[in-house]
Design a protein that fits this description.
Chain lengths: ~280, ~280
């Protein structure tokens, strides 16, 4: 049942050290502010799950929050490498990062299986690639009806899903639209959930293509205007492509990254209910 | 004298390969630039599909990411990520998949995961699979766009992320891959197509001013050359103007051509090429 709280309260209540956490968002609606709160609260030994870990996961990894990453594509979209991610994998800095990697289709199906309460999903994929040799939770399966060999992938059941949405109403129904990624599946596959929203309204008016997650399927809601920045919330903000490009230089150097964290994450009071728009990412 | 870069030649060639009315599953970076150039020139009804779930996107500029707002706002339909892969890609509805790569072998298999020496201690950690394995598996045909060098055209892949023709004839059938595999590889030197009998990539087209020996020198295996090697026409003034307009309109300005598959080590700087243009 949805509780509307501050962001700090939501993260404190929902996420514990050692949890498996899926902060989802497919370029759009990425919960950056929530990720920063996780860094500020110094959560450790997290297994981070996401199809497309980008800047916020780079920050969480560089800040030492993650023990393991479950993913299908780790990069700075349209720009290049994630340097904190690479430093962790290639040089174990600031600590070793265990990897479990899949394809997008595999990850999407794993979330869908988790949401459906099934132990695995079936797809055509992975066969002939090197992925299964390094990834647990991928296996051949024979169709009982046709005899065809397909691929089974194990379900994802995170402890916590974290997403950003455009709006919620006062009852806690959450509404988002535009590129919706795998957020619905991530929330329904997880035991707990945190949703940051641009605003809370009295009543949600219908929107073409919008997804509404009902109040009783949501854990915590926090109002964080601009909480997706440098990602965006369609109808509220534009993707800050300049920041994605600037991140390449900021993240290349450990010192510069640490300075950036100090200034923009640790140096700021936790954003909460009614907080101002996040301008410095 | 029309002056253009090798990258521009590559992008124009990739755009020309797309036919009007096709459905195209687009990776970000060079593939996206080429697909949008095709839409802006000879293929206005090219259907662009991005893995973020946007079907029929009609961006007026080249997006920086596969999830830029313009892709959703101009789409015929926006669906969830599980749906784009399960309902649209997997059954083989898409005509062509447009992919980048960090490494490619003679059978068109692709690596976008790690570059040596071992998976657990890689020299270079690349972004990983993304949507590429299933795009490579299920699209009716696949076009790969990448810059050619001995590093990228490898004798042996360090990791098979996406399957082309596997280890040769019959591989795709044995693996249950329903799509037609890589029918075209477009580089900054020329184009390659699979030999119909051996499935091995063969040089079938070459750009003006590029000697065959240079293509062979930039290939990590003994590259075969087609008996009917064709010289590919340089970009027309109209193609170049359209491409430069598209890239100039990208917000923000700046180089951003590293895609899901090409975001590896330092990209190769585009080499300027001068060639006779249509107007000369």
């Amino acid at each position: 049942m949805a509780q509307i709280v501050t962001l700090a309260e939501a993260i404190s209540a929902a996420i514990r050290d050692g949890d498996t956490v899926a902060m989802e968002g497919f370029t759009h609606l990425i919960p950056h502010a929530a990720g920063h709160e996780v860094i500020r609260q110094q959560r450790r030994d997290l297994t981070l799950v996401r199809m497309t870990p980008d800047i916020i996961y780079d920050q969480l990894i560089g800040a030492g929050c993650a023990r393991k990453l479950v993913f299908s594509w780790a990069g700075n979209p349209g720009v290049g490498s994630l340097h904190r991610f690479r430093d962790a994998v290639e040089n174990s800095w600031p600590r070793p990062l265990e990897l479990e990697e899949h394809s997008h289709a595999g990850m999407a199906n794993r979330f869908a299986a988790g949401a459906a309460g099934l132990p695995f999903a079936v797809l055509r994929g992975y066969r002939g690639t090197t992925l299964p040799a390094h990834t647990a939770g991928v296996a051949d399966i024979v169709c009982p009806f046709t005899g065809e060999t397909l691929t089974a992938v194990s379900a994802l059941r995170p402890d916590v899903a974290v997403i950003h949405a455009q709006r919620a109403d006062t009852q806690g129904n959450v509404q988002y639209w535009g590129i919706g990624g795998v957020q619905k599946e991530a929330v329904l596959a997880s035991s707990r959930s945190v949703v940051t929203v641009e605003e809370i309204v009295d009543r949600l008016d219908p929107r073409p293509g919008a997804v509404v997650l009902p109040w009783w399927a949501i854990g915590y809601i926090a109002v964080v205007p601009g909480g997706a920045h440098p990602s965006y919330a369609l109808g509220y903000s534009a993707r800050d492509n300049d920041f994605y490009q600037a991140w390449d230089a900021i993240s290349r150097d450990r010192q510069r990254f640490a300075g950036w964290l100090d200034e923009h994450v640790y140096g700021r009071a936790p954003a909460g209910h009614g907080s101002r728009s996040v301008t410095a990412c | 004298m029309l002056t253009y870069t090798a990258d521009e030649m590559m992008t124009v060639t990739a755009a020309r390969s797309l036919r009007n009315g096709m459905t195209c599953f687009v990776g970000i970076g060079l593939p996206s630039e080429a697909a949008n150039l095709a839409r802006a020139t000879h293929a206005p009804d090219l259907v662009l599909i991005y893995e973020s779930g946007t079907i029929g996107s009609k961006p007026g500029q080249v997006p920086l990411s596969i999830g830029d707002g313009i892709l959703a706002e101009t789409a015929d339909s926006v669906v969830s990520v599980p749906e784009i892969f399960n309902y649209w890609l997997q059954p083989g509805r898409i005509d062509v998949g447009f992919l980048g790569a960090a490494q490619l072998d003679r059978y068109g298999n692709i690596n976008t995961t790690v570059i040596g020496p071992a998976y657990d201690s890689p020299g270079v950690r690349l972004p990983g699979a993304g949507g590429a394995p299933e795009i490579a598996g299920a699209c009716k045909e696949v076009t790969v766009v990448l810059r050619q060098s001995r590093r990228t055209f490898a004798r042996q892949l360090d990791f098979v992320t996406s399957v082309g023709f596997g280890d040769g004839p019959g591989s795709r059938q044995r693996l249950g891959l329903s799509g037609g595999g890589p029918r075209l590889v477009i580089t900054d030197l020329g184009v390659l197509r699979p030999d119909p009998d051996t499935c091995e990539l063969v040089l079938t087209g070459i750009y003006a001013g590029v000697p065959v020996s240079r293509v062979q020198d930039n290939t990590g295996w003994d590259l075969k050359v087609s008996a009917e090697l064709a010289e590919i026409l340089p970009p027309t003034e109209a193609e170049l103007a359209a491409l430069r307009d598209l890239l100039a309109s990208r917000s923000p300005a700046g180089p951003a051509s590293a895609g899901p598959a090409s975001a590896g080590p330092a990209p190769v700087a585009p080499a300027p090429v001068a060639a006779a243009g249509v107007g000369d």
